[in-house]
Amino acid sequence: MRDRSIIYIGLFIFLAVITLPFTLNLTAGGTAEPPDLVLPENETQCVESADFMRSSHMQLLLDWREEYVRRNIREYTATNGKSFNIGLTDTCLAQCHTNKADFCDRCHTFAGVQGPYCMDCHIDPTEALGGRQ
Amino acid sequence: MNITRKRFLQVTGISALAVAGEKLAGSLALAMEDAELRETGSSTRYAMVIDLVKCWQQEGCTDCIQACHETHNVPPIPDHSHRIEWIWKSSFESSFHSQANDYQAEDLKKMSVPLFCNHCDNPPCVRVCPTKATWRREDGLVMMDWHRCIGCRYCMAACPYGSRSFNWTDPREFLPQQNLDYPTRTTGVVEKCTFCDKRLAKNELPACVVACPQKAMTFGNLADKDSEVRQLLYPRIAIRRKPELGTKPVVFYIV
Asked: A131 touching B, CB under 8 A?
């Protein structure tokens, strides 16, 4: 039992290291400031409620994708009865979120979302090369 | 355990019958699936008829290719082995091997024919696609879902017409301008003509048909007896590319 002190020191260091994320979080003083998103100027209501969009916009986009490409359904009827043309570039980006960098990208960066690769193919109108409207 | 010769023969016989029955059921199911694919019973069957006589009055014209490629953000890649083509032109001789003979005028053999996806009734590309990224719609369009394509290129190997291109590099690097109405593709996916499904959804004709200055391309519904395509096919002799393969292409060339 001569090593008792060494064992306790080792245990303390071990516990300190594995609880580091929690202790750092506690000492940081509250959560980080949420990103300052630039909301569309011309619209106050998204296709669905803000809460739903915040939690499930990715599922909505996946559903749109299935309907548009595979089922040839090109219109979406929202819960409030309004209908929208399905299209990430045509509807979301061109009509409301004209500044993707200040809306989509800011939140994705804040939440550490590893780039959804939508924009590898879908064109961001603000970045389009000599785009035809 | 003792087993008599009679019992042994009975067990092996029944086992062999069971295996044979399963195989038979499997192939019957496949055959039925094929038949279903061919006879969709749909009231719409889109097809294209190209009047080569009209097309050849403007030999060298590439308006259809330009219109298609601008509409669908198809990049002009200079490296021939990486080229992406939804419509392209090739000589009559190489487009219609079985129709060419030694006695045709050389000029005729070299006349160019616009080629693109044949939107087959029995598409081999659809059969081989492991992810169903390419499939046949009820109205006959052989579609592509680029979200689902994994770039295995089985479809390219299966297509007897070479209608498919693979994105070896980022196509955006080669696009002089982007059409906002249509997405681009990305590295590692296969692409081809979709008969302008997006324009069809808006009741517009395919871009190439609209662009053709000779009005040589006609698009319409084969299932409708009174449609323009049926009216064109009825009195004229039309040829298709490699019909002997049984793919049932629906791009017809009037000669």
From this structure: yes
Q: Where are the domains of chain B?
A: 1-39, 46-254
* Contact list, B146 vs chain A (CB under 8 Å): 121
Indicate whether A133 pLDDT > 50. no
The alpha carbon of residue B85 is apart from the nearest alpha carbon of chain A, in Å, by: 17
Judge whether B109 and B97 are in contact, CB under 8 Å. Answer: no
Distance CA B5, CA B248 (A): 54
The series of mean pLDDT values per 10 residues for chain B, 255 residues long, is 89 94 87 62 89 93 95 94 95 89 88 96 96 94 95 97 96 91 95 96 95 95 93 94 94 94
Contacts of A74 in chain B (CB under 8 A): 201
* Cβ(A40)–Cβ(A102) below 8 Å: no
Cβ contact B197–A72 (<8 Å): yes
Q: Tokens standing for A82? A: 């309004």
Instruction: Kindly state the tokens that stand for B162.
Output: 């070479």
Give chain B positions within 8 Å (CB) of A125.
180
Distance from CA of A18 to the nearest CA of B (A): 40
Fold topology of B46-254: Alpha-Beta Plaits (3.30.70)
pLDDT at B42: 73
Which tops the pLDDT comparison, B255 or A18? A18
Q: Which residues on A lie below 8 Å from B73 (Cβ)? A: 123
- CA distance linking residue B246 with residue B65, whole number of Å: 27
